[in-house]
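Protocol step 6 of 9: fold each sequence in the batch and record its structure tokens directly after the sequence line. For illustration, a two-sequence batch is reproduced in full.

Sequence one:
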Amino acid sequence: MKIGILSKRTGFLTGKLKEFYESNGHIVKIYTKENLCIDESLLENDFYILKSKHPIPFINAGYFIQAHNIPVIPDVEISYKHKNRIEANLLIKNAGLLGPLWYYGTLETIKKNLKKNDFPLILKPIEGSGSKGIRIINKINEFKKEHENLLYLEKLIEGVHYTVYFIGDEVCVMEKLPLKNEHSEMTRRDTTDTLREIIFTWKNKYALLFGHLDIVIENETCKHFVVDPGSFPEFTNWKCGGDPVSLIGNLILMEYEKQKKEKS
């Protein structure tokens, strides 16, 4: 088969998936910003893997490809909603899971609605995942002039932070320092019934093959808050047996065959 991968980089998990598929006799081409042109040349592949969630150009390319009845895995719309903080919070709510208290608006309108006990807050880019561009705001006067545009803020949850990976039915729980990204040092923890239930609720609600959830267990209440979903992590800290590259690669092939059968 001919497989396209939409990705901002050619290395890391993207490169490993390319090697995996090529070693199994498939032809693979990686499309980055440098070589991606959204036109009929994209219609030459059997299916695509959507590794990067940036709207321009990858999400737009995904929609174009799907419109021509070529499968894109994971689903384009769900992948984009993982990337947008507000859309992601709505996904969390619609799955019946607890998410963070959040604010979105101009600095002046947000200030009018904030009380002293609302702090500390986390300032996050409206589109993004992980810890890039994140800053803790402890009081009103810590906002700066560059914060005059629309802002997205979350209430900081004091608790134990986890990245919980899933590949198929396999769940891998990793404890991490607060607000650190997927590539930071983590410690493997046992999978509790509650964490497993959250993962299966999430993956079944949105028919996900793999991904991760950043979950905080609040110190005061022991409530489990989903604070950041990921549709296609690097699985840097997967430490739960099996090779994530082959596990993911085979799941994607099975999903392609399933979609092809449904269309025939």
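Sequence two, same batch, same settings:
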Amino acid sequence: MSKGRLIICALLTAYVSTTAYGEDLLDVYHLALRNDPKFEVARYSLKAIQEKQPQSLAALLPTVSASGVNNLTRAQSQFSTSQPTNRYVHAWNWSLQLTQPLIRMQNLYAYKESSVAVEQAQAQFTLAEQDMILRTAEAYFGVLASRESIKVAESELLAMEEQLMLAQRGYEKGVASMIEVRDGQSRVALAKSHRVAAQNELDIKLAELGKIVDEVPTRLAALDAAVALPSPEPNDQQAWVSQARDHNAAVQAARSGLLVAEASVGKARAEHAPTLDLVASYGENYSSGSTTMPSDFASRGQSKQVGLQFNIPLFAGGGSNARVGEAVAVKYRAGAELELAQRQAATEAKLAFAGVVNGLSQITALIAAVEASRSAVEGNHAGYKAGIYSNIDVLNAEQQYHTVKRDLLKVRYETLLQALKLKAAAGILNVDDLVRVNALFK
């Protein structure tokens, strides 16, 4: 590392608290796992879809049903010339029926549809996991960047106030003009505005993080100012784009969605197909007598039946054809959605890759700019004391120094976030990446 880089790292470290740290990025991620309501929605959505597969499988398996009746009948009966008599008849019967679908194409397609729907739901859940990682990291980085921006703003305000005091003393001694005093007052007011804006930005970022983790930790580990951010691996944009078009979680969900739509077409067309079921039943019955026959004898019987039940649809009012047309249209829509997802993934990969590469270049340039600005501040202060530079020159140098420092802090966090977005676009972002990023914090 160059001498200049070491100096700037030391300067940045001065703006990062080195006392005690609370939760780091991984701690906040685990809080999000437990508390993020958006992720909870995705979790239970997956669970609901997974329950559809055994439902469709059940339509292919045997069904067994049992029924029974037990009653007592009282009736007044009269036969021929006999006197009316009261008869009491106790009767019962029960039956057991088994139905096994043999040929039901619609049910087969429904099972296939539910199976690929589960795959689609799993891809959507992966997408939700990656989205939670990105949202958590972005909110975490946003809070840290805002807190460090406040420190920079406070340092800027202090420098402007000190220079204003020097200008006021110079004016009292007759060596500085009122213009320099007024300009100093303007810079102090502007620095106060920067401080208020930084605090407002922090409040917003804290609210965004709180929406994910519910309760924001008091202290958060910050990015180590001395660490160099890694370059993309591989450092080839096209490789990332190709990976994104094939493995992006949204692309995989859309690809499964196309398979679901194709199965739906088959299911709709199967409405025209004949069905064949195996039906077997067994039953017993008993009666203690009769209320309608002169002879009043008990009877008992049983029945056994095995057969095939065949059904062929002939006409359903055109509804089946309409459902086929609807399913075909949905399939074409799913194909278009897949192409859209692939293009979107490729675009996200390009933008994220450019964000990382350009961010690293910006960091290098801003480190040099911070070093140059710091030297300019020192030179202007020395020149001001020697009467070479005016108070305005010093104020301009101070303002430039703090602006560049603020930009450097923000670019470091933004570049780190773009690196995570690049992996998400490629479909490979997971908690292991957070572990590696977390190692950059202290």
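Proceed to step 7 once all outputs are recorded. Observation for sequence two: The beta strands are 63-77, 85-103, 275-287, 299-311.
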